Structures are given as structure tokens and as C-alpha cells.
Automatic annotation (TrEMBL):
Superkingdom of origin organism: Eukaryota
Transmembrane region(s): none
The species this protein was found in: Apodospora peruviana
Keywords tagged on the record: Signal
Keyword Signal: yes
Gene Ontology terms for molecular function: metallopeptidase activity
Residue ranges of coiled coil: none
Signal sequence, renumbered to the chain: 1-19
Protein name stated in the entry: Lysine-specific metallo-endopeptidase domain-containing protein
Length: 287
């Protein structure tokens, strides 16, 4: 989602939060992983989100094992899963991004990237049909346009808990791997997707993620309802959040390009594609 969309979405969220301040009372009884708090989530929704975060921990761990080998970035940028989305010279920023994403899904590092996860009610702004999630990009100290300072939210839409691409889990046992990789030659990208992919994409939009990863500040001009602010999180280049758009960003000649690692889906798509390439022994994953 582009910043201007975030703004209108966040503005309407203020009303939603006031109208339905109910918070899951039992969130302390489940193991904490990643977010500071789950807001408005049922026990079943919270369990599904925690499972997706466990998968995000695993999917980010795989490239990290090569990004940091005795302090040296040993990742081969010619691997197709990487070369689809990034350039050779992007390796250190991508490594820093994955360190922060890995920390964001790690219960022991949950303060490194601070965020809450809110389970949205049916039909709120930002959760149109087919939408899975969105994220508040404001820095934590941002005040204005109805926003107060505080930990920002990844908001998960009802579809997250029903769509196959977000309810699917990463395989763990050999039996699960066999099922996941079955018919791999004819499978498309979204048939390998899991909830970890969507959470990774959204978490990278957080200002706290960009700060943890060492991203430079970018300025958001003032809008109708909001004063200007600097933010450090990722964007959705051309307001599109598809793997194909990430591949175009890497190789195209558009004049308005952002850095590859500043595009949320480039990080998310690489994480999934590298997992599939490694676990299923598949060189290319068609879109
Ligand atoms: Zn996005």
C-alpha cells in the first residue's frame, strides 16, 4: 500500500478503534512471539498469527545463514531467487533487512522491531474484498491527523484467516515437504505462499523495521489531514504489491524507481522463492 492509502486507511481506523476497543483478554496466556500485543484477535486468530510468525522466523533464517558467515556476506547473488529481485550491490542492505525481519519474528528479540497486530473487523476501510492486511507507516513519535504517539499496528483482515495463500504453513516434516513440493514443476508462486509471506511484507512497512535495518529516512509530504513526516519502512512501488512488480523494479528502466530493498514485496517474494528453491530443489518459480 502506498503512503497516501495508508493515511486514509489509518484515519478511518481511528474511528474503528474507538468504536470497538475490545482487546483479547487471554493474549497473555499464549506464548508471546513478535508483536507486543494482539488487539481484537480471538484465541484461534492469535494462534494462527503466531504460527505464521514461527514460519516467518524459519523463512528468514534460511538466507540469513548465508548472509552472515563469520561476519562475511557469503550469499551468492547469482542465485535466481535473489537475482529476480535484487542486484549484486544490494547484498548488504538485504542482509540487514533480513536480520531485522528475523528479529521481528523472534520472541527473544521482540523489542528490536516494535509493533502490535490487530485483527480487523469485517468490512473496515483498508480491508476490502481480497485484502489480507495493511500497516501503519507512522514513526512511533508521530502526532497529527488524529494519530497519537505509540507502537504502530499491522492490521490483519478477515481474509487472512480463510485464504489458502495465508492459512498454508511452511512444511516441516518430510511428509509435509513432499506434499508441499509435489507437482512443483507446474505450481505457481502463490501455490507455495504462506501466512509468513504476508506478515513479512507488512512488517517491513513499519518505521520501526526500517530503523532496525538501518534504512535511510524518506520524507512524506504533508497531506490534507496529516503533517509531513519522515519514515524508514518499505513502500509498495507503483502501489503494487506483487512479486512480478518486484522483478520489474529490479530490471526495468523506469525513472521513478526506489531501491530494490525499499520495496516490501521484493523482500517477501525473495524469502519465499529462496525457501522453495532450497527445500523443493526448484531453480525457478513461475509467477
Ligand atoms: Zn505493502
Amino acid at each position: 500500500m502506498k503512503i497516501s492509502q495508508f493515511l486514509s486507511v489509518s484515519l478511518s481506523l481511528v474511528g474503528v478503534a474507538r468504536a470497538a476497543p475490545a482487546r483479547a483478554k487471554d493474549h497473555e496466556t499464549l506464548q508471546r512471539r513478535g508483536p507486543k500485543e494482539y488487539l481484537d484477535c480471538s484465541p484461534e486468530q492469535q494462534a494462527a498469527l503466531q504460527a505464521a510468525l514461527e514460519d516467518m522466523f524459519r523463512i528468514t533464517d534460511k538466507p540469513l545463514q548465508e548472509f552472515f558467515v563469520d561476519g562475511i556476506n557469503s550469499f551468492d547473488p547469482n542465485k535466481l531467487a535473489y537475482a529476480h529481485y535484487f542486484r549484486n550491490e544490494d547484498r548488504d542492505m538485504v542482509a540487514a533487512a533480513f536480520k531485522a525481519l528475523h528479529d521481528a519474528a523472534n520472541p527473544a528479540m521482540s523489542l528490536a522491531v516494535s509493533y502490535n497486530i490487530q485483527c480487523a473487523a469485517e468490512g473496515i476501510a483498508g480491508c476490502a474484498s481480497g485484502d489480507l492486511a495493511f500497516t501503519q507507516p507512522f514513526p512511533e513519535d508521530f502526532v497529527g491527523g488524529g494519530e497519537i504517539a505509540g507502537v504502530r499496528k499491522v492490521v490483519v483482515c478477515p481474509a487472512f484467516f480463510t485464504e489458502s495463500r495465508t492459512t498454508r504453513r511452511l512444511p516441516e516434516t518430510q511428509e509435509e515437504i513432499d506434499a508441499y513440493c509435489q507437482f512443483k514443476e507446474s505450481k505457481r508462486f502463490n501455490e507455495f505462499e504462506t501466512g509468513a509471506h504476508t506478515l513479512l511484507h507488512e512488517i517491513s512497512h513499519l518505521d520501526s523495521f526500517g530503523l532496525a535495518a538501518g534504512y535511510p529516512a524518506r520524507n512524506q509530504p504533508a497531506g490534507l489531514h496529516f503533517p509531513t513526516f519522515d519514515y524508514h519502512g518499505t513502500d509498495d512501488w507503483h502501489q503494487i504489491s506483487t512479486p512480478g512488480n518486484g522483478r520489474i523494479l529490479k530490471s526495468g528502466n523506469a525513472g521513478d524507481k526506489i531501491e530494490t530493498w525499499e520495496n516490501a514485496e521484493s523482500l517477501a517474494a525473495f524469502s519465499l522463492e529462496y525457501w522453495v528453491a532450497t527445500v523443493c530443489g526448484l531453480e525457478d518459480v513461475p509467477l
